[in-house]
Amino acid sequence: MVQRVLSGIVLTVFMAAIVVFDRIFPLALNIAVAVISVAAVHELASALGLQKKLFLLLPSMAAAAAVPFCNEEFQFLTYCLYTLIVFSALIVYHHETTFKEVAVLYSMVVIIPCALHTLVSLRELNRGHGMFYVLIAVLSAWVADVGAYFAGTLFGKHKLCPEISPKKTIEGLIGGTVVDVLVMLLCGVWFSAVFYRGAVEVNYLALFLIGFFGSFISVLGDLSFSIIKRSCHIKDFGQVIPGHGGVLDRFDSVIFAVPFVYLLVTFLPLAGV
Question: Where are the transmembrane segments (predicted)?
């Protein structure tokens, strides 16, 4: 548990640093998204046993690295090129791989970088307060996970999905949701009253909705990648983050939560002067 808490603190400080230094070095967010995407794709390929099949691994990692730096048009072109390369490789190396392997890897290379690239889109959605949007999106997923972990440890009795994730409980889900809502509202108070000294109005309804629904969506992301781990007969995607596992183990909920936050704040902006 100590390793898990310390790793969580380090990751939070890392994200906070990106937020603080955004105006000095705005590419920091793009680079962070690219690194996370590449690491996640590599972990997934390893879980599928494809780490030595470079004809699939290298173009997949290259596409994951490129997407966070592309606008919508270049993202489309990147995936068109990636599609041509991967399916050409499937034809040439059809004796060494299967369509099922290629299909799973291909779908994840599309989903993971695009979902995480939504963090960059969130920043661009509101250049004045965009990094507040980014911080809220990531925190909503992580806080829900941490809240569910501690609530489940202390009060968990009824299993949520025992065949997929034996440790998850209904009490943990409820506790994570309550904690997430409270933290989102507190972030709004800090942003408005402390950071901007009341000069910026915060949409607390939007923050409540992010905390409430974001918690459920985060669990959905966690369970979705748990199914992949079970089908690959592994416990974690990696060991790069002590107490958490791999990059995908830490960002699985973020991958699902961030697009939801983007969709919500498109209609209900979090902040306005």
Answer: 5-21, 27-47, 76-95, 102-120, 132-152, 173-196, 202-225, 254-272
Q: Is 164 helix (H, G, I), strand (E, B) or coil?
A: coil
Q: Is 212 helix (H, G, I), strand (E, B) or coil?
A: helix
Predicted confidence (pLDDT) per residue in 133-175, tens digit: 898 999 999 999 989 988 988 888 889 888 888 888 999 999 9
Sign (positive or negative) of CA dihedral 101, 35, 220, 163: positive
Q: Give the model confidence (pLDDT) of 55-66 as tens digits.
A: 999 999 999 999
Q: What is the pTM of this model?
A: 0.88
Distances in whole angstroms, Cα of residue 20 to Cα of each of 14, 28, 130, 140: 10, 11, 12, 18
Split into its structural domains, the chain has a count of 1
Helix (H) or strand (E) holding 10: helix 2-20
- Give the separation between CA 11 and CA 218, rounded to whole angstroms: 17
Write the CB contacts of 250 (distance below 8 Å, at least 6 apart in sequence). Answer: 11, 241, 244
Q: Whole domain around residue 252: which residue ranges?
A: 2-272
Helices 72-92 and 99-125 sit at what angle, rounded to 10 degrees? 170
CA–chain centroid gap for 171, Å, is 23
| pLDDT for position 1 | 53
CB 116 within 8 A of CB 37: yes
Name residues whose C-beta falls within 8 Å of residue 240's C-beta, 6 or more positions apart in sequence: 39, 246, 247
Residue-wise pLDDT tens digits, 67-100: 999 888 888 999 999 999 999 988 988 888 888 8
Residue 238's contacts (CB-CB under 8 Å, 6 or more residues apart) are 43, 46, 245, 246, 247, 248, 249
Residue 118 token pair: 């939504």
| SS3 of residue 169 by DSSP | strand
* Nearest Cα residue to 65 out of 93, 91, 31: 31
